[in-house]
Amino acid sequence: MPRVLVVLAFAALALLAGSAPALAHGFSSTVYVGVTSPGSGHVRAELGLEYDLLVVSAADYEHDDPLFRQGTAAFDARDPAAQVAALEAHAATVVRYVTERFQVTTRTPCSPAKDGGFRAEQREGVPYAVFALDYRCDRADAHEVRSTLFPDSEGYVRDTKTIVTYDLDLTSGSAALDANQRSFSTQQSVGARFWEFFRLGAEHLLTGLDHILFLLALIAGSRRLREIVLAATTFTLAHSVTFVLAALGLVTVPAAIIEPLIALSIAVVAGWPLWRLWRRRANPAEFELAGDGHFSLDRAGWLRLAVVFCFGLAHGLGFASALGIDTAWSWTLLWSLLVFNLGIEAVQLAIIALVFPLLVLVRRRSLTAPQWTTGLIAAAVSVLGLTWFVERIAAG
Q1: Which candidate, 307, 322, 346, 40, places its Cα nearest to that of 159?
Q2: According to the model, what pLDDT value does residue 369 have?
Q3: What pTM was estimated for this model as a whole?
Q4: Among 310, 355, 56, 396, which Cα is nearest to 220's?
């Protein structure tokens, strides 16, 4: 039985390693929208969309090959001026694609028109196209906003999220739209809005393989439940700190730094139990379970918590960048983002509750299986983390 579990654990991690590039960040997209009402019967939406995805999707939808050629050439050249020029030259194609997939309605659909020009900016290290739409609407007490931008059916990305912040109908707030929740009303309850962000946080952790592997590395390196609870709590506190600081606009770190650092954190934390196993062979007495001091941790245990805390700060910025909370409207999003964080924590606790008892079971069934299980999991995760680190440094 223990040998079977060891083999299954190693096979699962090997499978994850083989599919890592597809499961890590990068195959989903986030659209950012700010909606305001300059006057009665008038709604203004400023949209931020991934530049290359917008070019490919709009060109394909409208069969506009010149847009594809000009837009992709500007993207490959990393030339913001050329990117804006490509969009301006094919504005009708781009606007038609977006307005058919992003709609504002009252009792009837509002009439959209482009307001001003395009501009290019970087978000999470990715080129974004930003422009505004003016909607003329019937006078009403409530508006509905609907987004079907970049659907899975196009085949370019999956699980597109549209993050909307609004100041409309004498109310302000935020909403998260995706394939499961295409639209929202300004009369939507606070509970419904918060549930969207809670679900979004849970999905982000479940689909973010790097964060899951970091958590598995923490679990594999813990000898007792107390240790994993302390490590997970330390991780939570750390990433909550930078998450909130980013939401308040007080901390901004480029994705080119954060993403490699997250990958490195996986390798280091996963390598910790390997280091302990190596040291244990040299001095077994040094690694007897400590029974004195705060939380019954020895010096190595406290050092591990310090390392986890430092890397947790980086993960917090990674969570924050998933929603692009480095802009002027971040304060409006703060409470929704805290609920997003609760969704992350719920999944984190569920993973601990599922995985740690299995490791305990293995440790009780055999004297050698615990070391083999811990070593194989830690080695596989550490190698994967180092691989990501190299890939992300090269991509940056």
Answers
A1: 322
A2: 57
A3: 0.62
A4: 355
